[in-house]
């Protein structure tokens, strides 16, 4: 589930870009795309290289595992990358970096591992908060706070020959070669990008964002949101929508831990969602809106899906081969 627009808003009481994918794995993808251009961080540590764990990709959930959104998916999910597909692509990319760099003598090339914890929690972070917080147990323990996830470390290849071979540019590259051995166009990073291009599905992303907005404006959803708001008001919490900012209610999601008041409000939030069935109705409406979007431009959507599947299939095969 990926979104194209980047309008600042709040989601489940937390200020963020609603239509930027909030899954933490996206941060790791950003890391992979930017490696070699970072201006800060730590060079490769030749003594600290470890192959990422090769767990079964089936163990990475494609849908939330708890709460009111447990098991929920949407029709357009099949057209964009799942958390397990993204994780396999990340691992395959780094493995190819290492294999390429080893050809030039860099046997201990050590980019940081993609986060398995982030991949495993991606569905709960995305669909799990699509209609605001929806997990009662999480609300009772974390309030509106997001689960703790390690920030992906800043990384860059070591300055000099390693960076030159990785990027394909530097004083150490003479007439397209390093120590007489030809370097791929764009270095090992360029070679890998051609082998495993990042899956791109912009038409899918735009269709998802349109369907989401249309569902939010659907009468059945608006009525359910009004009932949810009335339920919250009965508990002395004046808030109009599950997507509204909760800071005016005295909630500080930037605090190290949630306050007792935050937990009280978050608990009421989810209980009112359960009582009014707003999540169920919203999801049902969005399913219908996505089906409508799919009917509008099926050929383009299918082409993007097929292109994505080719990249993902190749990355998944490479992931399993290295297991």
β-strand amount: under 5%
Through-space gap between termini = 28 Å
Number of strands: 4
- Coarse shape: elongated
Class per helix and strand makeup: mainly alpha
By DSSP (H or I, 4+ residues per run), the number of helices equals 12
Radius of gyration: 22 Å
Question: Biggest β-sheet: count, sense, barrel?
Answer: 2 strands, antiparallel
- Name the quaternary structure: single chain
Number of domains: 1
> Numbering strands along the chain, what is their spatial order in the largest sheet?
1-2
Uncertain spans: 1-31, 33-50
SSE order in H/E notation? EEHHHHHHEEHHHHHH
Mean pLDDT: 85
Helix content: 40-55%
What does this entry show, briefly?
By secondary structure, this protein is mainly alpha-helical. It is 48% helix and 4% strand.
Structure description:
With 323 residues, this protein is mainly α. It has one domain (8-321). It has helices spanning 25-34, 83-103, 116-120, 122-126, 136-142, 161-167, 187-195, 202-216, 219-234, 260-276, 278-296, 298-321; strands at 8-11, 14-17, 177-178, 181-182. A two-stranded antiparallel sheet has the order 1-2.
């Amino acid at each position: 589930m990926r979104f194209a627009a980047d309008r600042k808003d709040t989601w489940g009481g937390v200020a963020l870009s609603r239509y930027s994918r909030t899954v933490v794995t996206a941060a790791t993808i950003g890391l992979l795309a930017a490696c070699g251009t970072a201006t800060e961080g730590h060079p490769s540590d030749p003594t600290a290289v470890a192959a990422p764990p090769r767990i079964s990709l089936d163990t990475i959930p494609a849908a939330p595992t708890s709460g009111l959104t447990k098991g929920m998916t949407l029709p357009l999910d099949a057209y964009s990358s799942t958390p397990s597909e993204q994780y396999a692509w990340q691992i395959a990319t780094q493995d190819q970096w290492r294999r390429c760099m080893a050809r030039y003598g860099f046997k201990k090339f050590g980019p940081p591992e993609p986060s398995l914890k982030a991949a495993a929690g991606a569905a709960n972070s995305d669909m799990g908060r699509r209609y605001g917080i929806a997990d009662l147990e999480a609300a009772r323990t974390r309030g509106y706070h997001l689960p703790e996830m390690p920030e992906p470390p800043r990384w860059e290849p070591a300055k000099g020959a390693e960076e030159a071979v990785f990027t394909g540019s530097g004083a150490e590259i003479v007439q397209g070669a390093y120590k007489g051995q030809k370097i791929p166009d764009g270095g090992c990073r360029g070679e890998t990008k051609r082998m495993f291009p990042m899956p791109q599905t912009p038409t899918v992303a735009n269709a998802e964002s349109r369907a989401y907005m249309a569902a939010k404006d659907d009468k059945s959803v608006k009525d359910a949101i009004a009932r949810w708001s009335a339920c919250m008001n009965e508990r002395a919490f004046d808030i109009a929508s599950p997507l509204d900012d909760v800071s005016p209610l005295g909630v500080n999601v930037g605090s190290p831990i949630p306050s007792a008041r935050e937990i009280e409000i978050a608990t009421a939030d989810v209980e009112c969602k359960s009582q009014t069935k707003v999540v169920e109705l919203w999801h049902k409406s969005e399913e219908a809106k996505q089906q409508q979007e799919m009917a509008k431009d099926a050929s383009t959507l299918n082409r993007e899906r097929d292109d994505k599947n080719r990249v993902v299939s190749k990355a998944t095969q490479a992931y399993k081969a290295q297991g």
